[in-house]
Amino acid sequence: MLKQFINLLFPPKCVFCGELLAFNSKADICNLCLDKIPFLPDEIYKLGPAYSFDSVICLCEYTGIIKDAIKRFKFHNKSHYYRTFGRLLSDKIKKVTRGQKFDIIISVPLHKERQISRGYNQSYLISSFISKELKIKEKSYCITRVKNTNVQSLTKKEGRYLNVKDAFKARYPKEIEGKSIIIVDDILTTGNTLSECSRVLKESGAKDITVVAIASGKKFI
């Protein structure tokens, strides 16, 4: 009721085109833009032994209005977009996992210097939203970034593995051991960042890891 009252005072807008929406809008997307989102099929993807995670749930292709919105979300102080992406991802997880239970949810950490510069960790905002929606314990504090890496998207493809190698450190292994874990990130490109996060969590005893991303540029997804 409080949210609806606030929406009456400050009507929500579509995060993609800025059109005013009904006060009871849930995902802040107009119908026109909803039809433009390049959604992927409702499947869980397996990427093989080259990756340290076990499976991938990805919302859509990294193109068009999604690509533009993610850039605004990350680099132009549109932190409130987390509600839209979090809602869409929560619905996707429920569809494709069909009741599969996860013990904890974790976001890919930013280095403290980058987080101070940006003002927020966009992946953590989404992770926290999904945690509340799906009743999964949020434990992003169980992993930290110990190396201030170059931006992956600005790094040549062949150098991305080395860029994130040993960039993360697991913490509180007793909270990781034997757990089924979701790791949240905004984009899955080469998969190196998420694979390196997964590697350190697996070394601390994680049972299995499902990667959840808004979008991917991978051709085979």
Task: Show the helix and strand layout.
Elements: H1 2-9, H2 31-34, E1 55-61, H3 64-75, H4 82-97, E2 104-107, H5 112-118, H6 122-134, E3 137-138, E4 143-145, H7 160-164, E5 168-170, E6 180-188, H8 192-203, E7 208-216
Parallel strand pairs: 1-7, 2-3, 2-6, 6-7
Antiparallel strand pairs: 4-5
* Number of DSSP helical runs: 8
Write down the CATH topology of the largest domain. Rossmann fold
Order of helices and strands: HHEHHEHHEEHEEHE
Estimated structural class? alpha/beta
Number of domains: 2
* DSSP, total strands: 7
Instruction: Tell me, rounded to a whole number, the average pLDDT.
Output: 91
CATH architecture tag of the largest domain: 3-Layer(aba) Sandwich
CATH top level of the largest domain is Alpha Beta
Q: Which radius of gyration do the C-alpha atoms yield?
A: 17 Å
